[in-house]
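Researcher: Structure prediction, please.
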Amino acid sequence: MGIIFNSKLAKLAAQTPASRDRYVDFVRALSICVVVLGHWLSSVIVQDAQGIRAYNAVGVIPGMWLSTWILQVMPLFFFVGGFSNMVTYDSYKHKGQSLLSFYRSRLARLFRPTFAFLFILSLAYTVLIGIIPNWQQYARIGIIIIQPLWFLGVYLFMVLLTPFMRTFHRRFGLLIPIALLILAISVDIISIRMQVFSIRWINVAVIWLFVHQLGFFYADGALTRMPRWVPAAIAGAGLAALIILTNIGVYPRSMVGTGFDRMSNMNPPTVCIAALSLWLIGLAMMLREPALKWLKKDKPWMTVILGNSMIMTLYLWHLVAFAITYVILQRFGFGASPTELARFWIERPLWILIPGVILVLIVTAFRRFERTPAGGGAHV
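Model: Predicted structure follows.
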């Protein structure tokens, strides 16, 4: 079976056209894997008189916020999403295929594994409620498990807007992301000065659309045609903005919500996420050329193909694997509060290794609901 599986990967790798940007596939797979690792690294589940609750160790462990400036890589996913959506739309348009066909192809890969996830999870919840007398205390775990679905709604919005935003990109170019950035800054200023929190939810659309739009500049070759110093300048500008913004006494330093800060940079996103996006995109583009040389080798490229064939399954189920790990480890006394720093770090490998093994088993069972991408054609 392993030989057949490897031969399939080798065949897909051999069919990859020279025109395909392998780095996009690499960044997509890497960003999701980093998200999974980041959640396992920082998530803490505790049980007290109020039941089971979860929080982020970043808000407790001194200096751990700095890791979020590297590990909060959702901006990279939306960036390569912009690339992929524009390339695919242009491909469909060039072939004379309908807009509906474009939408169907883009959404099918999202919906198939998601519907399977929700259906299986609903059955599991129904069974557990029936056999666990005090199931209410586990309710928060159920809520935590479905939290990754937030990004699907936002990404669906990006896909639906792709044809229109592509037209704006062709006509106005850099003015579009500049306008979106100005709008995001305005929303933050109004929200902070007038103490109107609800207006900040506008930036869920504005900031992620800003990042998605930057992916168009990669898709049309503008970013890759620029001098080598430009990505470094973009990264430097983003990092400088991030340092300034997180030291003016308004925004927390963490790029993820911790539950301990006065506000969250991520939910809803603040302009800090826009700055983080520039920092990470610039850094990613700086690393592109050496990465492409590495990805020309068979084994790295086959690994990327394999990762992308199950990327949604990994993302959807990784917190289920973590929850199962909690059920197992808490029976043996594991699960210390991060206020006990030494014990937290000693235990942490268990909270990565065990959910990793469980996730492999889950992915093996459910990756059939996710389409295996072909080695060539438009980016998916």
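Model: The chain is about 70% helix and 5% strand.
Researcher: Thanks, that helps.
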